[in-house]
Design goal:
Keywords: Membrane, Transmembrane, Transmembrane helix. By secondary structure, the chain is mainly α. The protein has three helices and no strands. It has one domain.
Length: 130
């Protein structure tokens, strides 16, 4: 069994607990953003108001929702494998960098999907609504 720096291991334990809690809160906020949008859209009965609400808010709400969920999942993945960083502190920084990189890549992919492809889908649905 290898000897680890006990203060660093204690820091990692606290880090893992708090980042896990924060990631759950962030993912919950992302889901709540989506649920708020769907609930608000479902409560609008007038077709013109519904059309205007969808046109003004759907893409931005989905972007905010996906961004918060992506950040939350990135944080959760960062603390999912605590044994890999106990050997040296440099591995913590490497893990943070790799997690931030992949989170940024996925956020850019979702941004492209939501801002480029999704408006065509919304336009088709709104034509049916008219």
């Amino acid at each position: 069994m290898e000897e680890y720096n006990q203060s660093y291991v204690d820091f990692l334990d606290v880090w893992n607990v708090w980042v896990t809690r924060i990631s759950v809160v962030i993912i919950t906020v992302g889901v709540l953003i989506s649920l708020y949008y769907f609930f608000k859209r479902a409560t609008i009965s007038d077709p013109k108001e519904k059309h205007d609400y969808i046109n003004d808010n759907e893409i931005n709400m989905f972007w905010y929702s996906m961004l918060t969920i992506t950040i939350g999942v990135g944080l959760w993945l960062n603390v999912s494998f605590p044994e890999s960083v106990k050997e040296a502190m440099i591995f913590l920084f490497v893990r943070l960098f790799v997690t931030a990189s992949f989170t940024t890549i996925f956020a850019l992919i979702f941004n492209s999907l939501i801002k480029v492809y999704y408006p065509f889908y919304v336009e088709k649905r709104m034509n049916k609504l008219r």
